[in-house]
Specification:
Layout: H1 2-12, H2 15-27, E1 38-40, H3 45-51, H4 56-68, E2 72-75, E3 78-81, H5 84-105
Antiparallel strand pairs: 1-3, 2-3
């Protein structure tokens, strides 16, 4: 199921959505109630970028945008999620927009 979701994400959602979804999934890996507000990057940014089918530069731009907007704080290899609920809302809105796009496209 996880691979199917990754294929859907790659074909429908933008890179920012995919990165936020990844960060939230790593944050909640131990269950929703034990969610730590940070993610320790255990892979290189280049490898992370390739996972999302984007360049390292694009990944850096997305991290910079999220940081500038106050959603995350970056401390070396630790990504602190300042407000995971706000990030969930952000990708919820993106998901609704892409659903509308797919419905329009199918007509």
């Amino acid at each position: 199921i996880e691979q199917t979701q990754e294929i859907i994400d790659l074909s429908i959602h933008d890179a920012q959505y995919r990165l936020i979804r990844y960060l939230l999934s790593k944050c909640s890996e131990n269950g929703e109630h034990s969610c730590k507000p940070f993610v320790e990057l255990t892979i290189s940014k280049a490898l992370l970028a390739s996972r999302f089918s984007i360049t390292s530069e694009t990944l850096s731009r997305i991290f910079s945008q999220l940081k500038k907007q106050g959603f995350i704080t970056i401390n070396h290899e630790k990504i602190i999620l300042n407000d995971p609920e706000q990030l969930k809302q952000l990708i919820g809105e993106a998901s609704l927009q892409s659903d509308r796009f797919t419905k329009q496209k199918s007509f």
